[in-house]
Amino acid sequence: MFQPPSSPLAHHHSTRRYSVSDDDNQLDEVLPSSTPPRLVSSNTNNASMTAAAVTPETVIVVMGESEDDDKSVALEEEDLPPKSLKQDHNTNRGGNNNNDRHIFVTLYIMMFLALGGLTFASTRYIQAKLASNGNGNSGVASSMGGSDDVTAFNRDNIAFKTQLEAVLSDVVRSSDLLQVTSPQARAVEWLVFQDRMLTMEDLNTEENNGGDPFKVYQRYALMVLYFATSGQLWEEIPWTDNTMVHTCDFVGVDCDEKRQVVILNLYLRKLRGRIPDDLGLLTQLTSLTLNSNLLEGDIPTFLFDKLTNLESLDLSQNEFSSTLNPSISKLTNLKYLLLDQLTGLTGTLPESLKTLSNLQLLRLEQSQMKAPIFDFVPHWPKLETLDLKQSLFTGTIPTSIAEWENLKFLNMMNSRINATNLPSEIGLMSNLVEFQVWSTTADGGTIPTELGNCNQLEVLSIQGSNFVGQIPSELGRLTKLYLLLLEGSLTGTVPSELGLLTNLNYLSLALNNIVGQLPEELGNVKQLARLQVHYTDLTGSIPSGVCNDSIDITRSCSITKCDCCRNPCHKN
């Protein structure tokens, strides 16, 4: 008697398919919508059948799976119609109908075999990708045959999280990681269950065994910053989407050749809240820009204690409310310090700031801190820019200003700096490009003629109701001037030498007691776009050479003739 062999589909039921759940990134078992039929043979000795006797009536469709993979469901003997090998082909029960049925069954089985194989291959591929990208394994995370597969995948995540927390334990407070809603805990959860860039090998604490803890610290620190400062509200940089993006390719991040984060620029990104201490893990950072955000609280001391490689620090236009910690002196490499428009930053400018001998730029606009600022400047021999606009700093411009040979930009507009007498030594500042002072405390101060020696000047603004004297004709030597504002209580006439300032774009002589007419030589200043001579005692006309289609002129009504004036005149 012929015993039919087990069908190739006899083990199909042991194949499982998995998909990734949207909720927790775990593998969930997904049963196929239909399970292919399989042929099973009887295990009883009393039942037998011939090859020719296998018909569609003998095909049993098994849905689900048997309790024992090594056994198959036996056909009941009475279900098999008795047939003989010698039965005539032409009988009414045989013939061509049976042959057609055999072909149909064969095609039916082949079709489901193909579908099963395709599904199997797709599932293997998906698992392999998840395993290699998510758990640090180079191959398929688990075999495709049993209920332990899901457990194995979960165990990898748990092991990864355990190892990650172990790596961070030396640099992060454990209490932060235990608070499930803390930025630190949220960063860990993202790294474990969403991120696909860190591997188990990266968590190896031995560098010679492939470990790269610094790579872990960088990614972790940036994600803590993201969650701590309402990253979901950041402007156009959703870092949580960077699951397949290297840390160095995050928006706002730049790295060196060793793939270490050295620049972090989050200017005007709507950060809010407090800067987390974890940012101190970016120890190779040389430039940190957090300008124009909504950051609050104290300026954290870790910025000074841990980020000692910083060369540029910009915390301007935020809502910090504290004093400047003296530990800022630890930033010995600092070249650029920008703390402007921090109206909540009060107290005294720390003396330790004098130790920053590499400082090249210091911006303290609208600062509420106090100090005799010019006592600090000699300690910054490389200083090029000093912005004290609208600040509370006090002091008098010393004669030693001539020794500030690298200073290019000095802005003291509307500050409490005493500019009673601008020292003549200012004329020795050969590198000076911008000089702005607006003093209401000057008492009879004059404009030194030596300013005419500062031939690199492009911006000169001297304003204040108590400046007296005449406009120095020596200013005509400042041929690079773009802006000239001389407003106060100046007297005399307008020197014709101002006509030599051919690059001048903006000239204001308003609010002075000057008399006479504007010199015709001003017509040589072809770049002039704005002229202000209102609230003066000037008379006559605007020189015809000054007029053009685009110039904006504001004048006193005592200047009676102007062919290009569109604005009404001002009565004194």
Overall radius of gyration = 42 Å
Total count of helical runs of at least 4 residues: 6
Category from helices, strands and their pairing: alpha/beta
Mean pLDDT: 80
N→C terminal distance = 128 Å
Quick one: biggest sheet? 14 strands, mixed
Shape: elongated
Content of β-strand: 15-25%
Helix content: 10-25%
Instruction: Report strand order across the widest sheet.
Output: 3-4-6-8-11-13-14-16-18-19-20-21-23-26
State the total count of DSSP E strands: 27
**Weakly predicted, low-confidence segments:** 1-93, 124-155
Q: What does this protein structure show overall?
A:
The protein has about 575 residues and is an alpha/beta fold. It has a domain of about 140 residues. It contains six helices and 27 strands.
Descriptors:
572 residues; alpha/beta; 14-stranded mixed sheet; three-stranded parallel sheet; 17% helix; elongated; disordered N terminus
Present the secondary structure layout.
Layout: E1 18-20, E2 27-29, H1 96-134, H2 148-168, H3 174-178, H4 183-193, H5 213-228, E3 253-255, E4 261-265, E5 272-273, E6 287-289, E7 294-297, H6 302-305, E8 312-314, E9 319-320, E10 322-323, E11 336-338, E12 345-346, E13 361-363, E14 385-387, E15 394-396, E16 409-413, E17 416-418, E18 434-438, E19 459-463, E20 483-487, E21 506-508, E22 515-516, E23 530-533, E24 537-538, E25 540-541, E26 552-555, E27 559-561
Parallel strand pairs: 4-6, 5-7, 6-8, 7-9, 8-11, 10-12, 11-13, 13-14, 14-16, 15-17, 16-18, 18-19, 19-20, 20-21, 21-23, 22-24, 23-26, 25-27
Antiparallel strand pairs: 1-2, 3-4
Helix pairs in contact: 2-4, 4-5
